[in-house]
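Hey,
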Amino acid sequence: MRAAGKTSSRAAFAASAAVVALICACLPSAAAAAERRVPPGFFGVMWDKEIQDAPADLQAAEWEKMARSGVESTRVVFSWNLAQERPEYKPNFVRADEMVRNAATHGIDLLPVITYAPDWARVEHGNLASAPKDLRAYGHYVSELARRYGPRGYYWRRNPDVPKRPVRTWQLWNEPALEWQFSPHRGWPRRYAEILRTGARAIRRRDRGATVVLSGFANNAWSAISRLYAAGNVRPYFDAAAVHMYSAAPEDYVEIVRRFRQAMDKAGDRRKPIYVTEAGASASASVFRSPGHEHFQTTNRGLARHVAASYRALARVRGRFGIRRVYWYTWASSYDATSGVFGFAGLNSFSAFHVKPMPAMAAYRRTARAYEGCRKDARARCVR
């Protein structure tokens, strides 16, 4: 009797389990209810300014915080100027290696912007904003980066302790349409087109599947990209366009992207995505007013509200305008008046050896969690 009773219990349990499974298959699971609402990498951040020179252990700790905060992609600067001081030297990859290691260790995709020519390779000596004169040397530097960190990169063979996470997305130069960022400024579309073609060829020779991102355009970005298209023969050399936006009003971001998308569509690039490789504002309004920058000055509390509202606004229109990623500017800044308005742009404040989360940091984390559907661990993996 006991054996028979035991068998009957098993049969009843199996039947009940089948019914439960059927019900579960018909109802949305908890995971489905919290599924992500933006593509991978949508929540990004810029890593620059003083924290780049912090001690290695502090930098590693901050990359872990990025991963836990929902950052899935980080834009960094690979400065040719710092990597190759003389033409006869081989490029030095120490700074780049540290960023690649930290990103890979914590499951974050890297978007390097390859910019700043060394003095020996500049059109205008002594001017960091100078365009490169020696395009062949620039192409060589770009090629060496892709050869080192790409899918078949020798960095991964030489560093087996680092989780392999190849760099597959590259941005070529920074804000060439701005006079203080690119010199000589006259004729910049033609000159930048040459940089773009040189860099894209170098990357694709090493990694045919890489994504080449156009340099970011700021201010009247839609006008700048239209001028670049008019320079001719640029469309085959980039896979995504980029825009930089600074405002204290999220609706301004939507309008800028709308106009930028319109310019791309008009040029025949309807299918290419848009990367917002810089979006931000400044919490400096409670400290000082900066003429010409008032439109993106706010307070600490205002910046926190702005971060959340901006990501919500851009996520809402991402499908319509093809927005793939949004990089907040920036992860950490000094919050010191001597640094100007951009010194108050960080999600965190950084001074000497100390990093302090600002109100905007909590807003970024909450918003990322809501749109990614989960909390993250130190490797940027979901923890449910």
